[in-house]
Amino acid sequence: MARRRSAPLTGVIVTYPDGGPAGLRSRHLLLLPSTVSPREVGELLRARVPDAHLETSGVARLGRHCRISGPFELSMEDAVDAAVPMPWTLAYALDSPVQRDLPPAPGEDDRDGLAHTFPDGMPWHDEARGLQLLVGLARRLHGAVRVSVHGNGGPLIQPDPDGSVDMIIHSPAWLDPHVVHGIVDRLVPGAELAVDGHEWHGPDEAAYAGVEIAAATGSTGGTGGTLRDPLTPAELHALHLMADEHDLAALRAEDTIDAYAVVAEIATVGRAPGEDGAIEVLVHVAEPGEPSVADQPWGAHPFVTYEVRWACADAEERERRVPASSYLAARERVRPLISAVARTLVEATGGVVTDEEGFPLDRYRL
Predict the structure, then answer these.
(1) Which domain holds residue 49?
(2) What is the pTM of this model?
């Protein structure tokens, strides 16, 4: 008979898989400090999967063939059976099909450590999405992920809890470009506004010559055409009048934008401008469906997203499993600036702020 463990703060009974704790060996496990409550895990998960209620049901479906269950409270004996290293005693299990792609390329690296952990074939599809979610939760909650490489336990991934730098604000309020530029420029002097679009010079000559229309309608044009011309002279005249009216209306209307960016090169005392990279604020209109705002009254309609991102001087270093000490030092110098810009933007817009992985942050503790 399968043994059971109950979550102490919710009273939910979570049943071990077949084989008892040893059944966890074949599953990827999220390992957390014993001080992390089921409610905290459930709230973070709901920011990514809106209909998940892990803290009350003990299981949440992530996809058609993927689900997470727990918490499992492991005794020392249970941990040995489950191939969980000490001192971890709190686990959540990922049930997903084993889906492996080609091995990582020689020298390939990633900050989540998946290339290092799966040298024989990288996870993909449902398994990859589930693992990335576990790693994100582990990073946020100072935990780890015990992977199952060959169905019998495996190595430990311990993501850097300070690895998440960028912040994202979702809000129903649109701030004009000059307002956001002013906010950023006060905090990071020298900010520049990027709002210009790409210049368009009209269709190519083939469109004006009617070649494309003739090809689409089967007409070769002139007296040798096999079909009549697409439009009669009267129809063509009416079409030109309609097009002229449309163009004039567009010229009379005010210019509108739905996206822009503000970029500020970071000038740290004692360092050359740009040595620590730049701060970018990317502003755009987002479509409904973002899980982290599913419970907001404005989340079902288009809203505005403000992405506050660090463009570091060496983008490859940011994605390394073990970054260089110089990168880590730069990251800590930049972090207060990212927080200050995000804090000011969320105060101005009254929105919802998340980390770069979509997990909510307390706007009053940025």
Answers:
(1) 4-157
(2) 0.81
